[in-house]
Each structure stands twice: as C-alpha cells, then as structure tokens.
Specification:
By secondary structure, the protein is an alpha/beta fold. It has one domain: P-loop containing nucleotide triphosphate hydrolases (Rossmann fold), CATH 3.40.50. Helix content is about 35%, strand content about 30%. It is built from ten helices and twelve strands. The strands form three sheets. A six-stranded mixed β-sheet has the order 6-7-8-3-9-10, with helices on both faces. A four-stranded antiparallel β-sheet has the order 2-1-4-5, covered by helices on one side. A two-stranded antiparallel ribbon has the order 11-12. Strand 4 and strand 5 form a beta hairpin. Helix 5 crosses helix 6. The longest helix is centred in the middle third of the chain and has 14 residues.
C-alpha cells in the first residue's frame, strides 16, 4: 500500500469533520472518494497532503508516517490539486505549470531545460501545450483547472490527490481528465460528486458520510441502491453497463 490512514480524525473546534477513517490504497490504483457535501472528502485529502493536522490517528506513505517526512520530501512525493486553487493572474500558463518543479529545484531560482521539458510534457497531457505562452487569467475556469492538473503532473509525484478535478469542465474534458488520471502509473485519490464517472474510472470507491467511512470496495460492491438511498438520499436503479462493463446509476424521479 502506498497511502493508508489509521483511525484518522480531524476536528474544527468541537465539530468533528473526519471521524476515525481507516483506508488503504494500492500502488498505481485510483481510489474515488465519494460523499455528500460536508462529508469530509476535501478535509481528508488535505490531511493526507499535510495541509491540515490530524487530531488523532496516523497517515502513512508506504512505511513512513507523513508526520516524520520533511516538507520537501512530502512535496516531491505527493501532489494536490484543490477545488479552488488560485494563482497570480500575471503569470503565463507555462509559469503556473512550472510551479510543479519547485520541490525539485531546492534553492535554485531558475528552471532547467530538463524542467521545462517535463512541464511541456505535462501541459501536453492535459491538452494545454499550445497555450503555454497565454496569460493564465485569460483562460476559462475549466482551462485553469487543466493547467493546475498539469502543474501537479509536472511535480512528477508518486501519489496524486485531486479534489473535484472535473468542476467547471465540459463533458468531453471531464472524460479526458478522468481517463488521463485513471491511466497514470501512480497512486491517485480523487474526490468526485458524479457517481457514474467514479464508477467508470476508479478502481475502488470509498464513501464518506458525516466524516465516517461507510463503504469501500470495487464500484459494483459499493454503489448499491441501499447505499445511494442511505447516503445521498435519492432513489436509484443500479445496473452493469453493457458498453463499458462498469456499474451505472440511474436516478429515479419521485
């Protein structure tokens, strides 16, 4: 396992946000993190990325607790793409994506030719290489998200955390981004709202509700009529798609 959490909890004041979560992700696999708004998905990702401090429990990368890793070591290994990442609007697309190389340069202020080759490769993977010289603030919301994913890929992480990476993207780019993520030879945890996209592209799914892990397993094991009703409070029919072979959720009108 490359990422594992052991009885991890997190609270803000007296409000428990993540409550005793235990999960493990196999190397090179994609785990979809599902749950209603406020279920703790984003907080759990930030805990794994050490942007928040656990109240109790341990998070491990391989055999090492993340608490024992230096900031530099963690940054060279784990990349996080947040929902509402902001960046100086005077930067170009290339400049933003270059930020992913910072953990590898140490105190060196300038990018090398090797760095730029990695950055351009990352931009190409998200379909933004031709926009490298464009000012970031002129991009649409979806294009900005693709550049932030390129920044994370330029970091060359072994673990990638993505918080709602398909927000603001049209259907084509939702499919493109999740298809890309699912084919990466790295461990990925991706928080999603769309149950069908999660079933299509994730190897395993973990469902949070009110901060607690209520289900984890293969998509067809997790996405049941009963779980969808209990957690998401909607009536649904679940069947295996004849097209892609994964389970498919059809929502039923009241």
């Amino acid at each position: 396992m490359t990422i594992s959490t052991h009885n991890v909890s997190f609270a803000v004041g007296n409000t428990v946000i993540v409550d005793g979560v235990n999960l493990a992700i196999e190397k090179g696999k994609t785990l979809g993190l599902l749950g209603p708004n406020g279920s703790g998905k984003s907080s759990l990702l930030r805990l794994i990325g050490r942007l928040r401090k656990v109240k109790s429990g341990v998070i491990r990368l391989g055999d090492h607790s993340i608490a024992d890793l230096s900031r530099g070591d963690l940054a060279r290994r784990v990349a996080l793409v947040e929902q509402h990442a902001t960046t100086d609007t005077q930067l170009t697309v290339m400049d933003v994506a270059r930020l992913g190389r910072t953990p590898h340069r140490g105190l060196l202020p300038l990018s090398s030719a090797g760095d730029d080759a990695i950055v351009l490769g990352a931009l190409a993977r998200v379909g933004m290489k031709e926009r490298a010289a464009q000012l970031w603030h002129t991009l649409s919301g979806g294009e900005r998200q693709r550049v932030h994913i390129a920044r994370a890929l330029a970091q060359t992480p072994s673990e990638l955390l993505l918080d709602e990476p398909t927000n603001h993207l049209d259907i084509q780019h939702q499919l493109d981004i999740l298809g890309l993520v699912s084919k990466l030879d790295i461990t990925c945890i991706v928080a999603l709202h769309d149950l069908n996209l999660a079933a299509m592209f994730c190897d395993r799914l973990a469902v949070l509700n009110k901060g607690q892990l209520v289900a984890i397993g293969a998509p067809e094991e997790v996405l049941t009529k009963t779980l969808i009703a209990d957690v998401f409070e909607v009536d649904a029919h679940v069947e295996r798609s004849p097209i892609h072979g994964r389970c498919h959720v059809q929502y039923l009108l009241a």
